[in-house]
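Incident log, structure service

09:12 report received: a user says their structure output differs between two submissions of the same chain.
09:20 pulled the input from the user's history:
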Amino acid sequence: MLIELYTAPACSLCQKALTMIRSMDTPPQVTLVNVRDDTTLYHEYGARIPVLKRTDTQQELGWPFDQQALKRFLE
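09:34 re-ran on a clean worker, output below:
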């Protein structure tokens, strides 16, 4: 499964989310998307990062989330 992590430089919450993803038994493949590189993405996600987006279903999971919510999101 591929997921995108909408993030920005120096985002401590984004680092927490990435650490949570990487600590999973079978972590999904993650593409980091810097919202500051795209005006449209910045307006849509800039105030909400970190946000996870599944590339298969287009579903999103916004912060705050815990390990259980992350697992449910990826099922």
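09:41 both user submissions now match this output. Likely a transient worker issue. Closing.
09:42 reviewer note: The mean pLDDT is 96. The chain has three helices and four strands.
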